[in-house]
Amino acid sequence: MALLQISRLSKEYLGGTKALTDVNFSVAEGEFVSIIGPSGAGKSTLLRCINRMVDASEGEISFDNINVSNINKKNLRLLRRRIGMIFQHYNLVNRLSVIENVLHGRLGYKSSIKGVMGVYTEEEKQRAFEILNKLGLKEQAYKRCDQLSGGQKQRVGIARALIQDPKLVLCDEPIASLDPNASKIIMDHLKNINKEMGITCIFNLHQVDVAMKYSDRIIGINNGQIKYDGPPEALSRDMIYSIYGTEAGELITD
Amino acid sequence: MVKNEGLDIFAVRRRQFFIAGLIIAAITIVSTAITQYDPVKGITSVPKALWWMFRNFYPNANAFTRLPNILSKLHETFFLAVASTTTAAVLAFFFGLMGSKTTKVNDAMCKISRLVASVFRNIPDAVWAMIFLFSFGQNVLTGFFALFFVTFGVLARAFIETIDEASHASVEALQATGASYFQIVFQAVIPSSIPQVISWILYMIETNIRGATLIGILTGTGIGHLFLLYYRSLNYNTASLVVIAIIITVFVIEFISNYVRRLIL
């Protein structure tokens, strides 16, 4: 049984922009899937439909046998806490410390009042330190996030997602704002999480070479439609051309 | 062809500039004519005014015997400004949350709170004071509410923008973790926007000290009223001491709030 099943998914924004048209695919538990495609192809929208940060116009999404599409507010909270999300711009609360940002990942498990006051249990704090240690951020735990480098910030973002104990992590352009060195560190960490902890990862990526190197499977979208769905080895040069449009394809594969 | 188009744009710019200048000149001439204001007389009377101030408008020994009274009124005005600003800020923050695109509860509430803030902001405090004169009479309460409503309007607007700017990204992230609305407000919105919020509150306290002085003339309270009393009774020396006291207070507050801003930002 697939962890994530997407069928006939379409999204039309107010004003008539068609972001996604009839998207179908499923993801098995433990997969490491990259979604590639040109800017504006609908990659971000697709990712955000999965945890309902964006409401789909049509189609069905089921995650772990729960129908995501018509779920009430309370159950949406329960769903989201099992899906971690990592962002291009890290989306941390920059004025708070690293450890506070990591613990934000536990808010979905807390009563509103405890979350408001920022009361976390001893186990949660210990777990946060374990995760930070694993990501090589132990020394930074009490620093404010605005003192960190981009790569370190993204690792805090990963830690925040991991402390949710997620079954699935959605990564929206996780390395688009990072230098090659930091990008490699982030990708290696994510691959580790996938291999060691068995957490399913779905990526939006701009870099085709990175997608080819790390993923078990690549989904190519153009203009809101799936053009390719298969293993990286089978992704031909011609296919990349058709995903990105010929002119851009030549630049990327050089 | 390209060159011609380029020239054309510059010609259009020059014409626009010329027409704008013409309109401004026309407005100035018409309004001076209507108000019978003579610019030459206006400018030449400045030295005379300065000379008059130099002879009459300075505190003398007698004025300083009134200092305790002046300081007590100054306290009253200062605390009126602070109290009206801080209470208005609490209400404004709530409206800021409702009106912000990031933290709105629904579209209707968002529009309504923006509209309410806009109405309160655009009616000046002096007009509010006049309105409340009917309800409360010449009273501190009138001044308080006049300042409260304008401050509320200005701060609500400022907070809407602050919240959108400072916390959009982190709010998205916390929503994605399954955090509840109030958890998001306290864990992301407030920590991200607090420096700008405090900065705005300090700015409004400064503004309201000046505003409270003027409104005091209307409502017959505080330092503004005291100034009017001395001025009307031709006690220019004491009136000047009132002015100096106000100026010093405003500068001190400005200095303190700049210092606080540097610390928090």
Descriptive account of the structure:
The complex is a heterodimer of chains A (254) and B (265). By secondary structure, chain A is an alpha/beta fold. Chain A has two domains: 1-82 and 166-254, 3-Layer(aba) Sandwich (Rossmann fold); 92-165, no CATH class. In chain A, 37% of the residues lie in helices and 23% in strands. Chain A has ten helices and ten strands. Chain A has a six-stranded mixed sheet, with helices on both faces. A four-stranded antiparallel sheet of chain A has the order 2-1-4-5, covered by helices on one side. In chain A, helix 6 runs parallel beside helix 7 (180-197). The longest helix of chain A is centred in the C-terminal third of the chain and has 18 residues, at 180-197. The mean pLDDT of chain A is 92. Chain B has 265 residues and is mainly α. Chain B has two domains: 2-51; 62-264, MetI-like (MetI-like fold). Chain B is built from ten helices and no strands. Chain B has helices spanning 2-35, 39-56, 61-64, 67-99, 107-122, 125-136, 140-177, 181-219, 222-232, 236-264. In chain B, helix 4 (67-99) packs across helix 9 and helix 5 (107-122) runs antiparallel to helix 7 (140-177). The longest helix of chain B has 39 residues, at 181-219. The radius of gyration of chain B is 25 Å and the shape is globular. Chain B starts with a helix and ends with a helix. Chains A and B meet through helix 2, strand 6, helix 4 and helix 6 of A and helix 7 and helix 8 of B.
